[in-house]
Amino acid sequence: MVNDSDEGGAGRAARSKRADARRNKETLLDAAAAVFVTSGVDAPVRAIAAEAGVGLGTIYRHFPTRADLIIAVYRHQVDACAEAGPALLATSATPYAALGRWIHLFVDFLVTKHGLATALQSEDAGFDTLHAYFLDRLVPVCTQLLEAAAASGEIRSDLEAYELMRGVGNLCIGAESDPRYDARRLVDLLVAGLRRPH
């Protein structure tokens, strides 16, 4: 006969184990993203393992191929950017301030994904859905921020989220390879241009 308290303890232990596994995977993804920023997506897996403080086997258990790892890092970064939008709206002084801070995170994602874009254009079928995932996750967040800033009267209301994100993306092209080009400064000018004239 199984004691109810034993079942409760087993359930808590299983949930705790799942939470630990999720945290470990997120630590790996954060470590991989940091290494990709400094060394590109072709960085040795041992460098990622060292950054994460784990063995090579742990990485290969979670991500059997480099493509699996790149896809997971990309999705993880998109998710972080998407989740930041509502949090910034809740904690920023104004919706326009939240929009500006979110655009900075978006720029960081675009500028620091060294080699991801090239890797994502490879023939691996796993990459096919990532652009759609990027749009599905981020366009609604940007829309929410734009609508909140427009409703507060801070910015003009005739701009689509996709249009703004595309403009920001175009300003970021090549920024990582040209130290004389400051994409963030130009993006700041673009965001300043959204303000409703007084």
From TrEMBL:
InterPro entries: Homeodomain-like_sf, HTH-type_TetR-like_transc_reg, HTH_TetR, Tet_transcr_reg_TetR-rel_C_sf, TetR_SbtR-like_C. Residues 22-81 form the HTH tetR-type domain. One of its GO terms (molecular function) is DNA-binding transcription factor activity. Keywords: DNA-binding, Transcription, Transcription regulation. This is TetR family transcriptional regulator. The keyword Electron transport does not apply. Residues 44-63 bind DNA.
